[in-house]
Amino acid sequence: MSDGWQVYRYYLKRLRCWAHLIRKAEGLTGSLDITARLFGEQTRLLLNTLIKAVYAARERPPGQALPITYQGALSDYRWLVKQ
Fold this sequence. Notes:
By secondary structure, the protein is mostly helical. The protein has one domain (6-82). 65% of the residues lie in helices and 0% in strands. The chain is built from four helices and no strands. It has helices at 18-29, 34-59, 66-69, 71-82. Helix 1 packs antiparallel against helix 2 (34-59). It is globular. The mean pLDDT is 87.
């Protein structure tokens, strides 16, 4: 698991630290660029939603797998990233 330091981009299989991703999203929410600000807000919202779901699943397993539950939100976010 790593932060966003460039040298790590050469690893094909790597994980990004959620705390660093959330911090970057929060930074984008303060941008003067409206598109960047909205993207930061959407990213922060999705990451916070997913992390709460993971913590809740640790306490009590959900009725269905989290990727299924959040399939729509993840699909919407993929579309947003491509934009």
